[in-house]
Structure formats: C-alpha cells, structure tokens
C-alpha cells in the first residue's frame, strides 16, 4: 500500500536508514527512545559513513537543543515563518525518537478535544455503556499509553480552551477518562511520551497560547535558509525528486532554478543581492513554495511540450504563488521583473511578464 502512497511517513521512507542506525547504535538511550541522541542526530543531519542522508538543512545546534528538550520530557514548540520545514523536522524527530511519526493532530478552528484525546464508539456505548471496548483513542491518549511522540501541527489555530487540554498531560503526565471507573479512568504517560508542536510566527496571533501552556514547552525558532547555494541545492534536489515521482524524466534546468531561488530570496527579503531595495510581497516566498513552483514549472514544460520548463513557464507558475494574499502583489511582481531584467533568463522573464494575470 505504501508503494503507491503520495508521501509515506518518514519511518517508511527511511526504514533502511533507521534499521542501520539501530544496528550500529551502542550509545545509551533515554527511557522509551528507539535511538540514542547521537543516532537520532545522525538520522536528521546525515552520516556518510553509514549511508544516512541529510534530511534537514539548518543549524545543527537546533537539532541538539530539540533532542535534549525531548529527552527531558518537556514539550518542544517549533516556531518560524511558513515554509521553513517545521513540520518536516517534527516528523523526523518523532520517527527517530519513537520509530513512528503518525500520531499527529492537525490544528484548526474546527479541532475539538475529542480529536486530540479520545471519543466513543456510540453503538457500543449505547449497548454496553462506557468501557475500554467502546473507547476510541485519539493521538494524545495513544501516545501516552504507548510511550510515543505526539505531533501537534499548527497549535495556535486551535481555540484556547482546546489548546489547554494539554496542560495535565504535559505537567502531571496523566489523562483522566471520567466516564470510566477504577484504574481504567486514568491513563498514565509511559516512558518516551512527549509532544512536538508547531506554530507559524505569522499566525501566532490567531489564538495566542496561554501562559500556563507556554511554560510546558521549550520554544525553538526555525529560520529560513541563509545561504543561497544551500537553498539552490535543496530546491534542485527536492524538485528533481518530485518530478521523477510525477513521471517527468527531464531534470529541472539549473539556470531556471537559479533565477527562481534568487527571485524568491529577493522578494522575501525586500532587497536584491546588490543591496537595492525592492517590493516585498505579502505572500509567503519560502523555500517550500520555491520547490512547489519548480515542480510545477517542470510539469508544465514536460507534459505540454515535452521539454524542461522555461522562464515563461516560471512566470506563469509564479503568479499563483504571488497573488494568494494581496492582489497588489501581482503589480509588485511585475515591477520587480521590469527592474531585474539583466541576463538571459531574467530578460526572458521580463519578456514573459504579460503572462501574469490582470
């Protein structure tokens, strides 16, 4: 089944690497962990001697601090701009620590406590009354009972009262099930249980976390990739892998990717590489968005004309990224292309600016 999944979880995608790390892992492990801290670090940052690929491009000290936080049983909160791979990092950490990353809660305005803690099989509930048979465990209860990492994506999109249902599990390490009686009414966290949450800095004001909940987390900020060459290599590798999975045999053109990454960085920072000021778009011009655009450019060129994507394809695909939040962003993008038209690919972008809608 996983052979045809669009995106298998990390423990499936990297099952061979996790097995090699477990085989060669002779270091002490925190209670309930599948790997030691050093082996978990190698899983995320890579190890050429064992054939372990690097999966996260960022500050290695961030990984060290995150792993230490998880080993202390405190919650880990990853914050940062959208598209900085917070969700990917939480998935990798969960796979390394627990061997499973699928105990995931997706935060949103409609998220309820039932989706976080537990609910009931109402047919059995009516027929037999409250029992462990009629109890339907949600990710938090399962993570506590099995001693695994629970991931809470976009926690600040949940209402405040829903967020605060984490207080007792994170502090007292217990979850009460008042409908049951006796020992079954209390679920005590097993060794290995903890929570990794994520929140976008742009959206933290949607439902600000309570001070009590903040105290139960260690906060770590995930920053955008600072180095151009590193970001370019990442976009090229990720876009190439996506194109291959989509049935495109032609790799993305590097000159087009160079223009794409440069444009994203300059529009994100509001400044060109030469230091000239430029319009900053209100939309998210992240590395993840750049990978998505590069993927779309390759698909457009290959399936419509049988060739790698061109600068004209890039302009068409950029429009869908630039105009998400503010219609004025298209005008800003047009002005940017008019100013930045030196060089073959930039000139081609300038000439294709009429493909932008509006």
UniProtKB/TrEMBL annotation:
GO MF terms, alphabetically ordered: ATP binding; ATP hydrolysis activity
**Top-level taxon of origin:** Bacteria
Q: What is the lineage of its organism?
A: Bacteria, Bacillati, Actinomycetota, Actinomycetes, Streptosporangiales
Q: What is this protein called?
A: MoxR-like ATPase
Recorded hits in PANTHER family, A to Z, give:
MAGNESIUM-CHELATASE SUBUNIT CHLD (PTHR42759:SF1), MOXR FAMILY PROTEIN (PTHR42759)
The record, for Pfam families, names: AAA_5
Ranges of residues in domain AAA+ ATPase: 72-227
